[in-house]
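Lab manual, section 2.4: Encoding a predicted structure.

Procedure: take the sequence of the chain (85 residues), apply the prediction step described in section 2.3, and record the output as structure tokens. A sample record is shown.
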Amino acid sequence: MNKKSAAAGALCTWVRAIEDYAKCLKIVNPKREKKAIAEAKVARLMEELRGYEEEFAVIQAKLIDLGRKVSENQRRMDELKNNLQ
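Recorded output:
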């Protein structure tokens, strides 16, 4: 086309570029949508994970407190056994 008319050659090149772009969009757009869905799912799961981590921290603190109480009661029980003997 460039041999006949420079303007027609440029127009032909532009049209082919637009066609290639449209073909690429047909491939890329579904992938963009899947990515957005995946990112939303990850955000939801991260929020859920933060909730579980907070719950775990509370349970862990209770467990440490109960462990300390068990140790204290064990020490008192050993002390009382010694007094009985």
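Check your result against the sample. The helical segments are 6-84.
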